[in-house]
Amino acid sequence: MVATPIQIKHEVKDESLALLGKQRIEWAGREMPVLRQIQERFAKEKPLSGIKLVACCHVTTETAHLAIALKNAGADAVLIASNPLSTQDDVAASLVVDHGISVYAMKGEDAETYLRHVEIALDHRPNIIIDDGSDVVATLVKNRQDQLPELIGTTEETTTGIVRLRAMFNDGVLTFPAMNVNDADTKHFFDNRYGTGQSTLDGIIRATNVLLAGKTTVVVGYGWCGKGTALRARGLGANVVVTEVDPVRAIEAIMDGFRVMPMEEAAPIGDLFITVTGNKHVIRGEHFDVMKDGAIVCNSGHFDIEIDLKTLGENADDVKTVRPFTQQYKLKNGKSVIVLGEGRLINLAAAEGHPSAVMDMSFANQALACEYLVKNKGKLEPGLHSIPTEVDQEIARLKLQAMGIGIDTLTAEQVEYMNSWTVGT
């Protein structure tokens, strides 16, 4: 029997990996009940029928369920990778072979390929963009102004992307609505904190097999991702130090039981450094110079700019790969610094990313944000918009229901009291 050739346009590494990808996608779905319910409703109602959509995401088993939900909704979707090392090639293959979704993503793709995929995605002339870091949106605004009238809006689920969108709005170039998925309670409280915390340490352990117990672990940044990372590192017995630039977050870290100090003081004592800031060069040349021999450095922020790898490379006499996703930089001072995952997201470079249980809520937000944009086409002002509270609450309710957990409801008397100013103590 001759196999039917795949007609959908795509660029993946190996279509023969589709069976493995299908099995892993099905496994992830076991803990994604909220998105599954949305998929089922979308299949009946087709709220995105006729909508051209581009999704720039980490191509993982969890993202596959979002892509399937969007297709069920009637969207004509193209999926590209948001990070060169985060693509799971078997998943990409299954989405093409088993679901007929146009995917352009390969693990290890170079910057040139990534940028070419962004252009291919924009050639699709999207009405909605699901972005992960705002590269696609920024490219559209900078280079394809003629397509802006076709854009209904965008959704963004990363802190880095939201920072860029705010900057675009301040510069007057964000001329369309953007849904701030990242700040939804059912996203950042769980995805950023519990997802990043667990998956980051998973990636570090897979790449190095080091024992974290007793290690001085420096967490750079104490946002929600930093909180989760610090919490999980302490749970494995690490001595956690936090560095911060925000005085409120620094106080919070102290009261959570962590040591807080500037990076110049943390650099000489750290065994392991994890950046989770979303900012540029938070670990720099002067920090590398005073690190212990064999100090391990990695990033779990969005882009590979948090660690100044250019300066590190210039100060190294030799660079070699000592394990998968593990490079040793031999410095001119005789000491070595170990960099994991090329400074990219270690939880996706060396591991599988966030557990599906938290991505269930994050991608539920993404799917419902797309539906909200379509339903409110022409009604939303340009700029950032929060996920409606009722949507956030509904996602949480569905998650609790799937977990078999009930909660109390307010009585009529309590509702009246909470909405009254005349009743006192």
Structural class: alpha/beta
- Helical fraction equals 40-55%
Instruction: Tell me the radius of gyration.
Output: 22 Å
Count of individual helical segments: 17
Oligomer: single chain
CATH superfamily of the largest domain: Adenosylhomocysteinase-like
Mean pLDDT across every amino acid position: 95
Order of the strands making up the biggest sheet: 9-8-7-10-11-14-13-12
Short overview:
The chain has 425 residues and is α/β, with parallel strands linked by helices. The protein has helices at residues 18-29, 33-45, 61-72, 89-97, 111-123, 135-143, 159-170, 185-208, 224-235, 247-255, 263-266, 285-290, 309-314, 346-349, 356-375, 389-403, 412-418; strands spanning 52-57, 76-81, 102-104, 128-131, 153-156, 177-180, 216-220, 239-243, 259-260, 272-275, 295-299, 316-323, 326-331, 336-340, 383-386. The chain has two domains: 15-183 and 353-403, Rossmann fold (3-Layer(aba) Sandwich), CATH 3.40.50; 193-344, Rossmann fold (3-Layer(aba) Sandwich), CATH 3.40.50.720.
